[in-house]
Amino acid sequence: MGAVQRSRNEGGRVAVFVDGANLYHSIKSYYRGVLDYGILLEAAVAGRELLRATFYIVEKHETEEAQGGSGARSFVYNLNRFGYKVRSKPLTVHETVTPDGEKTVTHKGDWDMGIVVDMMRLADHADAYVLVSGDGDYVEAVEYLQSEKGLRVEAISAAQCTSQALLDVCDLHTDLGDIPELFRRSPKAVGDGQSAAG
Q1: 3-state class of 36 per DSSP?
Q2: 43 phi and psi, to 5 degrees?
Q3: pLDDT by residue (tens digit) across 48-91?
Q4: May I ask which residue range the UniProt record assigns to the signal sequence (predicted)?
Q5: In this structure, which of 18, 143, 181, 182 has its CB flanked by the most CB atoms within 10 Å?
Q6: How many whole angstroms separate alpha carbon 105 and alpha carbon 102?
Q7: Alpha carbons 128 and 153: distance in angstroms, whole number
Q8: What burial class does residue 186 get, using C-beta atoms within 10 Å of its C-beta: 0-12 exposed, 13-18 middle, 19+ buried?
């Protein structure tokens, strides 16, 4: 709570960028219960003026079709209801065959470059950014935004799986576990659509 309180004193316009895949894997590995995305956004904004909140998801289309596809739709609907703009892209599956004839399947689906591009686009309109991710791939973009654009950049993530380089460069870090009431026991309130983020 102390970390979130300190950010409230900064004021100004804030933009929030949620790396859904990174958040999903952090929740799956370190926390129990269902994350309340409304409380997450409230903690990120921390009393400031919200410019935009964008939630980036990678959708596994084959799984959705097998389940009737309603899980991802209700998840996106709930995110919209909480105030997030949702950007989605499909998970890409690559199949290759080795010289021995062995088939290898790899999955690609991340928003790292898209998030960085969106951060650059909004840089002249915000005073602060909140990045919900622990991925060290954002370090250079964060340093650029701080030094060249004068932006305050904060991170919210699971400390256990956050890049030390990202922790070192951000102006403030809030551990997911330190946000009061962030995790609920019953999945019914949000419609257990977290899998759509991963």
Answers
A1: coil
A2: -65, -40
A3: 999 999 999 988 765 444 444 567 788 999 999 999 999 998 87
A4: none
A5: 18
A6: 10
A7: 6
A8: exposed
Domains of the chain and CATH, by start: 2-197 (3.40.50.1010)
Stated as kind and residue range, the H or E segment containing 115 is helix 112-122
Nearest to 89 by CA among 59, 123, 51, 131: 59
**Residue corresponding to tokens 């915000």:** 126
Nearest to 145 by CA among 164, 165, 169: 169
**pTM to 2 decimal places:** 0.81
CA-CA distance, 14 to 66, in Å (whole number)? 39
Q: Are strands 128-132 and 34-35 parallel, antiparallel or unpaired?
A: unpaired
- Bin 48: left if φ > 0, else alpha if -120 < ψ < 50, else beta: beta
Structure-token match 């689906």, residue found: 109
The amino acid sitting at 177 is: G
